[in-house]
Amino acid sequence: MEKLIISAAICGAEVTKEHNPAVPYTVEEIVREAKSAYDAGAAVIHLHVREDDGTPTQSKDRFQVVMDAILKECPDVIIQPSTGGAVGMTDLERLQSTEVVPTPEFATLDCGTLNFGGDEIFINTDNTIFNFAKIMKERGIKPELEVFDKGMIDIAMKAHRKGLLVDPLHFDFVLGVQMTATLRDLVFMAGSIPAGSTWTAAGIGRSEFEIAAATIIMGGHVRVGFEDNLYIEKGVLAKSNGELVEKVVKLAKLLGRKIATPSEAREILSISK
């Protein structure tokens, strides 16, 4: 079985210090969390950025400063900027994260509209998805296809048929938001993507490590981090993203998967630095 790529979603756009004091806002805090995850074994840093007061932003300048600072501490890590941003942002705002220099090698592409709870709706029309895919292809950015249910896989395949996505495809199954975080649904999602594709899975909240363990056994890759889950175990807040990554590394060792370095992850994902 190929080596395990661990992605760390270190801050997200919705969680706050009120939820866990270790959630990073400032450039220095985000770098601290990225390095803790990298040192623990993460090859990919899934990146949102914040203003110093915690406000989510897609500012190109903020992404540039943060990405430069992370690469100074972790020169070979894969930084995967989010194009999801936060609920309510426009398409042009969201795409700013792909405008930094050098152009990112990897970025997220959300493949459908979903309910985030309460009255929050994260809107991704077909035209938005196709436009994002077109721009990423033009810029030479490998998209991670963020899918929250089976219908989003089908939308991604529409983009593929239009020639907007290049094989091999890479998916991220985010379970526990719109689709349940169960072994049944993980197996269904993994069986619904084209042969030759790679995939990562993320379980939201208390399902994070259950999904991680199942994914390791199934041959997929794992995402953890404060964006998805703030606890290392029931009732115990994680001290850092690195602590969450360390737990996945321990699971992988128990289950017989070795951990991919950033260079090995690039080879598995068919991306080049």
Walk me through the structure.
The protein is of the alpha/beta class and 273 residues long. The chain has nine helices and 14 strands. The strands form four sheets. The chain has an eight-stranded parallel beta sheet with strand order 5-2-1-12-11-10-9-6, sandwiched between helices. A two-stranded antiparallel ribbon has the order 3-4. Strands 7-8 form a two-stranded antiparallel ribbon. Helix 5 links the parallel strand 9 and strand 10 (170-175). The mean pLDDT is 96.
Give the key terms:
9 helices; globular; 8-stranded parallel sheet; TIM Barrel; alpha/beta; 273 residues; two-stranded antiparallel sheet; 37% helix
Question: TL;DR of this structure?
Answer:
With 273 residues, this protein is α/β, with parallel strands linked by helices.
The SSE order reads EHEEEHEHEEEHEHEHEHEEEHH
CATH superfamily annotation: Aldolase class I
Instruction: Tell me roughly what share of residues is in helical segments.
Output: 25-40%
Number of strands: 14
Radius of gyration: 17 Å
Arithmetic mean pLDDT? 96
The description of the largest β-sheet is: 8 strands, parallel
Structural topology:
Elements: E1 6-9, H1 27-40, E2 44-47, E3 49-50, E4 56-57, H2 60-73, E5 78-81, H3 91-95, E6 106-110, E7 114-117, E8 120-122, H4 126-139, E9 142-147, H5 150-161, E10 170-175, H6 183-190, E11 198-203, H7 208-218, E12 221-224, E13 231-233, E14 236-237, H8 241-255, H9 262-269
Parallel strand pairs: 1-2, 1-12, 2-5, 6-9, 9-10, 10-11, 11-12
Antiparallel strand pairs: 3-4, 7-8, 13-14
